[in-house]
Amino acid sequence: MSEADVENGDHVGLLAQKPNPGLKFDKKLSETERSTREIRNVTFANQRKEIKFNLNPGRSKLHTRSISQSSTDSYSSPSYTGSSSDEDEVNPRDKNQKNSKGSSDFCVKNIDNAAFGRREIEIAEQEMPGLMALRRRAENDKPLSGAKIIGCTHITAQTAVLVETLASLGASVRWAACNIYSTQNEVAAALAEAGFSIYAWKGETEEDFWWCIDKCINSEGWQPNMILDDGGDATHLMLKRYPAMFNMIKGIVEESVTGVHRLYQLSKSGKLTVPAMNVNDSVTKTKFDNLYSCRESILDALKRTTDVMFGGKQIIICGYGEVGKGCASALKGLGCNVLVSEIDPICALQACMDGFRVTRLEEVVKNIDILITCSGNKNVVTRNHMDKMKTGCIVCNMGHSNTEIDVGSLRTPDLTWEKVRSQVDHIIWPDGKRIILLAEGRLVNLSCSSVPSFVVSITSATQALALIELYNAPQGRYKQDVYLLPKKMDEYVASLHLPTFDAHLTELSDEQAKYLGLNKTGPFKPNYYRY
């Protein structure tokens, strides 16, 4: 990648109430009392904003705000603070903020919102039993004592539970976001208030994005020795700008398709000078995060952003890996006519056996209602495709990177961008046709909704164990290459979550274990086994 990659980055109407002709007032009420009684307050749970409307519009002005105006955070991450537009326009880098302990080693939207974020974290902890169990079991041993971890992931309530777990296990951490839209501002504030060095806020510019990562890496008196990455951005920046520092890293843990691809490229070219753990291809990540999580979160993201009715819609899923399988399964269950495009004959055959028609995007693009990319590739959807789409087509991405949809080709003088609500844009063609683009082509479920905490618990426990393994491994166990998480650790992560379901494993007898050639305590499958 070029040096420019480092700088540029990768990565409803007014609510009105008609007069009710049947509404009668007590004649004994004074005019003041009558006016007061006419005003009713309505609070939307997902906005936490007060909207007033007058039951008699002829008596006073209508006091209301459009949902699209007041929903700066409603459709992606919870926001309960309702900060003013003037405050929203101030870049957090220009603010002088300190937490209650007097520390200013952070940069978040508004430190005063920490209490709201703390409640979000407490809710997430209840639905993350495996990670909390790992925290309780290992916090006395402090297996990460002395570890200094650079984190670059989505900053959500679930991530906060991981951050605080790593700290409980002895680590010192500094954290930035891997996505400019997925940060929950209140959660970032809560972590900053707790003393963590968090550099992230929702709606960063590309310049802000790289500045935040750099602030985490280049801190006076703090030398990182581990990286936890989602997309490879922290790894990429450190390697390019601070090569000496990069060579002192003990290990990298990467959880995304894009980031793993980058690591394998570095390894192939001989530029990977430290061991790395590919968590993305571990069973607990691939099967649970990619499949089960996406099966639920795609519906949440589409509903929150577009209020779309799924029944009868023509939908094409570009890519039938675990993410595509989860999306297709969920949408089929709600009555959608789901089509699949694939390059891999094995995945294509799986789609056929699951009852989906496999086709090329070019053959059906004129008729589809919703397009979802899940391939991890680039330019899967081009300007030529979007030129042929019908008006109202919804276009979004469930892959990690923002390269699957060629959004750059839409930023031309002949097309008009119209912001509908947070993370929702109309792209309008000269003839009046418009498509709906979600999250500007970035990861739609984390940009526009959230993911199930339980599934994140599985992934986070896997990440924590990978960090512990790399940090404590004796010299020579891992060379300068990319490794998969040991099968035994995958099984341990799964076992941490079984008590939630009151699940009881059957134990092998000595005779059965000998017959299968296994240890009674596992691992139970060879590395080549496909779950």
From TrEMBL:
Question: What reaction does this catalyse?
Answer: S-adenosyl-L-homocysteine + H2O = L-homocysteine + adenosine
* SUPFAM superfamilies named in the record: Formate/glycerate dehydrogenase catalytic domain-like, NAD(P)-binding Rossmann-fold domains
GO MF term (any one): adenosylhomocysteinase activity
Stretches for region Disordered = 1-105
**Which pathway or pathways does this protein act in?**
Amino-acid biosynthesis; L-homocysteine biosynthesis; L-homocysteine from S-adenosyl-L-homocysteine: step 1/1
> Which EC main class describes this enzyme?
hydrolase
The cross-references to Pfam families, in alphabetical order and at most eight, read: AdoHcyase (PF05221), AdoHcyase_NAD (PF00670)
Among SMART domains, the record links this protein to:
AdoHcyase, AdoHcyase_NAD
Q: What is its EC number?
A: 3.13.2.1
Q: Which residues are involved in binding NAD(+)?
A: G321, E322, V323, G324, K325, G326, E342, N445
**Skewed-composition ranges (Low complexity):** 66-84
Cofactor(s) the protein needs: NAD(+)
Cofactor mode of binding and number, as noted: Binds 1 NAD(+) per subunit.
Q: Which CDD domains match?
A: SAHH
What's in the keyword line of the UniProt record? Hydrolase, NAD, One-carbon metabolism
Keyword hit for NAD = yes
The GO biological-process annotations, alphabetized, read as:
one-carbon metabolic process; S-adenosylmethionine cycle
* Basic and acidic residues bias (residue ranges): 24-40
**What's the family?**
Belongs to the adenosylhomocysteinase family.
Entry-linked PANTHER family: ADENOSYLHOMOCYSTEINASE (PTHR23420)
State the name under which the record lists this protein: Adenosylhomocysteinase
Organism listed in the record = Crassostrea virginica (Eastern oyster)
